[in-house]
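cache lookup: miss for this entity combination. No prior model stored, computing from scratch. Input as submitted by user K.M.:
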Amino acid sequence: MLRPTLNELISGMQRTIIEALMPELTSPYAQGQAMSAIAMLAHAAAALEAAPAYDAAEIKDLRATFAALKRLGDKHLPKKGGLRAALTRATRASAKTPPDRRAMEESMSAFAIAVALGLCDDRVARQIRGYIHRNLERSRNLLGGTLPSA
Amino acid sequence: MVGLKRISGGSSRETYSFDLEWSEGGEKRTRPMIGRRDPTGGLLKSDREREFKVIDAVHRAGLKVPEPLYLELDASVMDRPFFIMHRAAGQTGMGAFPAAEPESTRAKVTDDFLGELARLQSLDYRECGLEILGAPENLEAPARIQAAHWTEIYDRDRMGEYYPILDAAFAWLKANPVVSDRIVIVHGDFRSGNYLYDQNGIIAMLDWEMAHLGDPMEDLGWASMMFWGRDEFAGGLMEREAFYRLYEAKTGRRVDRDRLFFYQVLGNAKMAVICLTGIRDFVERRTSDAVMPFLELLLPALFDDLAKQLQLV
């Protein structure tokens, strides 16, 4: 492993701000900005570790969800609304190396819209809701459930 | 001008605090001031002339707002346009009304909050000279205009990413428009965190940059979103159902639950888009405000609420 690691560099920069810059800052606004920068560096350090696993889990889940939809067959997808084409695009994107995540998410958007508008049958909607539930849980684990008052 | 310092808050503009000192009739006078200058980037792209005119109009109508004093549109004076207003006393917060405050203060702030909203919604925008905000052509237009406006900003600032829940929200808003019962002045960001208060109640409502004409349920929906207080208390002020009843008592009008729901969905989607705008401006170096990257951390809570509202989970 190369030293210093990215995490070591980030925590070093946090110390620089705290120990070298903060004592020189006199305005509350500048001090607030420095505190925000320190907190964001802490978040970045944690995200650096967690992001690869998040990405891998996201791609795996998208792939599995679209594969499950494919197994259900076209008869469960409405002819109108472009869902069949979206599934074809997603299947193609998930077979790429590396998988085209953005294209899969674009297709997932088409399915989420269909669920919100009540255009899907129950079996399709169950798959999409399951994915969104897991996606939200992963996002909360990665980013937290921060509110503006926090 | 003494004591000039930049302060946080009102993130859509650079905000400065200072005191103005002058002599009048041999006497030294002092007045606390706030200067709001256009940012290089940030949360919103809004028109400071509109904002100034709205504050001026509602101030003349007797609402609790800081007195607007001076508007400078000539960018050569201070690099960017700015305006100056009276600096009101009091404290503010970032979101939900602080749980640590005494119950008596909370009750007074709540009463003033809905009282000010009722007064705002009782104003005739024409008599206030606010046709400049663009009156919707009919009662169906406000929902359509707002949904289209935020969809457009979403498409501009999503940086090529897909957010399935947000895409679903905007599709739902387009497919389920509501019809207003009248056209009122909408503050656009009427919520806890956007007022100055003390133990006697609200001193001034702030941040009028998103004001427009529209449906009265829009401000009520925004103020009562789960996002501004994660419990049953709307904005940390009052239990939601009691909050709606007090609104009805103050306005003499019924809360339309379908329209309220529409504007709560719109509110969550709008707030998510505001976050995306701030993130994009930070990433593309139009702002160096260190608060902007934190906006990403707000998205899970907004997406959670939208997913529940749209039965996506």
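stored under new cache key. Residues 257-283 of chain B form the longest helix (27 residues).
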